[in-house]
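The aim of this short unit is practical: by the end, you should be able to scan a pair of folded records and say something sensible about each. We start with the first protein, listed as its amino acid sequence and then its structure tokens.
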Amino acid sequence: MKRLNWSILVAVLAFAPVPGLAETTTKDVSKKTGEAWDTVKSYTADKKKDAMAYGRKLVRETDHEIASLERKASKASGEAKAQFQSDVKELKVKRAEAAKKLDEMGKATGAAWDEAKNGFADAYKDLHDSYQKAVKKLK
């Protein structure tokens, strides 16, 4: 099971913004985001340490994605630049929410574990879906 979780992590991280991102289909990205969401939700309380490490990696990777979008925004002009800046601002708010939920997950014990874990999974999915919408605007 642990090997499967790491395989999914590698698959999720494989779609980070790099040359050739345009070759990744929306369907592929949606599938990978869904797999990350399912993976986070599958962790049990006794695997909290693994879940936290996985969550931190997801958030860290999203930080890189947002930074990449910021660089692209800085090169744009006019309405496109304003739209990118707005998207980045929204992403940073959602990133902060995901980080908050990750922190709550780290503090959760017992009965609160499932709620905290699901809260992070949902916040991460919302963050990543928003990122994908912003990336689509680049095309």
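Turning to the second protein, read its sequence before its tokens, just as you did above.
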Amino acid sequence: MKIARYKFLTIAVFVWFVFPQAGIAIPQTDKEQEIKRIYKRLIDAENKHDLPAVRALVWNSPSTLFVAKAPAGWHGYWGIDDVMQHLHEMYQQPFRIDPIYDEEKAVFITPEIAETYIPVQITVAYGGQNRVPKPFVMVLIWIKTPQGWRMTTDIPIPVPPDPAAR
């Protein structure tokens, strides 16, 4: 009888600790998939140069930040109007982003704030750039609003070439 109680207690403790964590992981996975779907919608809209569709996915705030190559150097564009004006100017030239979706990561800083990380190839002729695809890592911050998830910050980080072997 003692052995049966011990087995039951062991199973109960196991279930108590394991299944609650499994229950937490399932919604997180759903949230990750939701963020990844929205990221893909944003990239598809950018590649189509569809400013209204892009604007609908960007946080309508003066704190929105988009870091990008400017006609002279790199620049932070602040606020949705400044960001959209910059995108409008960029879209006058060839512009394309090709993400490596298999390497995309999404993490949640809080239930309402997420960060995505994804390697991409960006082809752009804006600001005197050569129209050759270049590797970047895109880091985006997302905020959950009453209208859904919106991109708050977009920081593309250029990936330098590997040093030549000696």
